Amino acid sequence: MRASGEMRMKLGIHRAPWPVILLVAGLLCPTELSVYIGDLRLPPYRIVLLILLPIAVTRMVTRNDIRVHAFDVALIAYNVWTLAVFMSHGTQLIGPNATPSDGLVYGGSLVLEGTAGYLVARVWIRDITQFRAAVQLLFVSVVFAFLVSLPDMLFGQHFVHDLMQSLTGYAHPRNTENRLGLTRAYGTFDHPIHLGTFCASVLALVWFGTTHGTSRWRKAGLVLAATFTALSSAPLLVFAVQSSLIGWDRATRGVAGRAVMTLVGVMALYVVASMVMTQSPMAFIATGLTLDGWTGYYRLLIWENGLDNVWANPWTGLGLADWERPLWMVSGSIDAFWLVIAIRAGIPAFVLLVLALGLLMRAVVRRGSRSKDRQIRGFALGWIIAVIALALAGCTVHYWNALYVYFFFVMGFAGWIADPKRARAGIMITLPQRLTRPSWQTTPWQPAASLQFRGAG
């Protein structure tokens, strides 16, 4: 039974919806393959989104088995607010060489990536078979990323980007960084940290989507190996967080009220750590649990100065204007997804996105935990763990370009659990059952199962 389940898992990629396959393939394409229309850059994944968005919207509003929920509305509101903010800033806060259309172009790109990335998963992954196939597709993508990035790490050269640069003439900004005597790999991604985060994020989904113990550990090992090629602390923490939550789930299975117990335990641990440590727990994690302590410390400074910018511009943020910070902080990079949202688009954008994610997680937990199908409960838990890890990583990693799309794509992944398919209305005809036992029947008589005919609905 388990073997047949594993075989279906291995051969089930063909059951993944074609738009999902197309988008994942687009996310794995290097940025050098971008198409330019004037000053507008269209990387492969953005071309895919432009094609799929109108189809996805049509399916969302016309299909009877998909209902619009509060989490959908909150996510759309986040994207509408983001577009409105950047359009309102116009050229004032984008730069001295900006044109009036720049706010629309930049904000429109974010709306396309956030809305379409979410809807592709939301409207095309609608049952457990499609979900399982999509998870397997992500695992195969991680294996592909590992095979591409391993030579980068071992030989100190970005082979894919170098090849694409020689073919297209576009030079994507890259740095050759060494850690632990190895080179940080890019693979096909825009940055090593994006490579690592993408690979690490699938651990929980793959773990709960695999039934055989040996296969689980083998796949987890491949995910870890792919994550390691980035030589980045944040992706390794994403992997560690998921591993810890998977272990905690196994240790507390069957314990009543374990969710409350977990929250209380985490808060108590934080309080005790704050009392006995010379630095805050967050500072310890940022500087002590990183491959490069200086980058962790710099991220703390980004948060401290970034929050000052948020409080100074709480409603509509700064747009693309440079944020205020000490002169010695030369780089304007903000390595924190959640902080970037608050700085660029204001606190309302941050609240709307957190609200959408919270409502979606609540719906998945409620419906997933009540499901009679053990696999659905497992997939719901795996998705929750993956999203928690991605959300935590967003405190130290900025999701941009392909990884920005991927974050919203993962959000929509569990839409089928939060909004399951409704049974189609049909015409049911039940034939009358015999009410008396035939005289020749010697065993206790039971009526035969009634025959049912369902209309096409």
Characteristic key phrases:
457 residues, two-stranded antiparallel ribbon, two-stranded antiparallel sheet, 19 helices, 63% helix, disordered N terminus
Polypeptide structure, described:
With 457 residues, this protein is mostly helical. Helix content is 63%, strand content 3%. The chain contains 19 helices and six strands. The chain has helices spanning 2-10, 18-28, 44-62, 70-89, 102-124, 128-155, 159-168, 192-200, 203-208, 213-228, 233-251, 258-276, 281-288, 293-312, 337-345, 347-370, 374-393, 402-413, 415-418; strands at residues 35-37, 40-42, 178-179, 182-183, 429-430, 452-453. A two-stranded antiparallel sheet has the order 1-2. Strands 3-4 form a two-stranded antiparallel ribbon. A two-stranded antiparallel ribbon has the order 5-6. Strand 1 and strand 2 (40-42) form a beta hairpin. Helix 2 packs antiparallel against helix 3 (44-62), helix 4 (70-89) packs antiparallel against helix 5 and helix 14 (293-312) runs parallel beside helix 15 (337-345). The radius of gyration is 25 Å and the shape is globular.
Summary of the model, kept short:
Helix content is 63%, strand content 3%. It is built from 19 helices and 6 strands.
> In what range is the share of β-strand residues?
under 5%
Portion in helices: 55-70%
Distance between the termini: 35 Å
Count helical runs: 19
Total beta strand runs: 6
Strand count, sense and barrel status of the largest sheet are: 2 strands, antiparallel
Radius of gyration, whole Å: 25 Å
Q: Give the averaged pLDDT, no decimals.
A: 85
Strand pairing plus helix content: what structural class? mainly alpha
Give the strand order, joined by hyphens, for the main sheet.
1-2
Q: State the shape.
A: globular
Order of helices and strands: HHEEHHHHHEEHHHHHHHHHHHHEE
Question: Spans with pLDDT under 50 lasting ≥5 residues?
Answer: 1-9, 424-457
In quaternary terms, these chains amount to single chain
